[in-house]
User: Which sequence fits this backbone?
């Protein structure tokens, strides 16, 4: 009589990276859409772009929300990409964990800076 403890989750195979692959594609689409919206809004500004125009560009709440979503997409996209690179090229587990921690601290710091800047405008 055999007893099965835990789940029967496979950790190998072609389907394992599908979630990360899909997340990379979806975040890339979000980033591209934000870039298109931003370029369209910048092209509608007459004359030189100074601080006041830049502030007015991000004044509508929908633009701030879109920027927030795009910033989250950039951070998630960066985390997935850097994590995959570290998994592929850093073979020492302790060094990889240290690198993961450094990347996470850096990305969280970038997120704080982006959100502080966005809502200070």
Assistant:
């Amino acid at each position: 009589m055999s007893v099965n403890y835990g789940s029967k989750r496979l950790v190998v195979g072609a389907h394992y990276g599908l979630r990360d692959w899909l997340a990379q594609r979806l975040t890339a689409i979000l980033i591209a859409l934000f870039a298109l919206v931003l370029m369209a809004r910048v092209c509608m500004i007459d004359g030189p772009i100074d601080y006041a125009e830049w502030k007015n560009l991000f004044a509508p709440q929908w633009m701030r929300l879109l920027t927030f979503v795009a910033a989250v997409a950039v951070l998630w996209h960066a985390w997935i990409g850097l994590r995959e690179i570290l998994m592929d090229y850093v073979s020492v587990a302790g060094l990889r964990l240290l690198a993961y921690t450094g990347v996470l601290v850096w990305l969280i710091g970038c997120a704080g800076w982006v959100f502080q800047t966005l809502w200070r405008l």
Summary: The two ends are 67 Å apart (CA to CA). The helical segments are 18-43, 51-57, 61-89, 93-120.
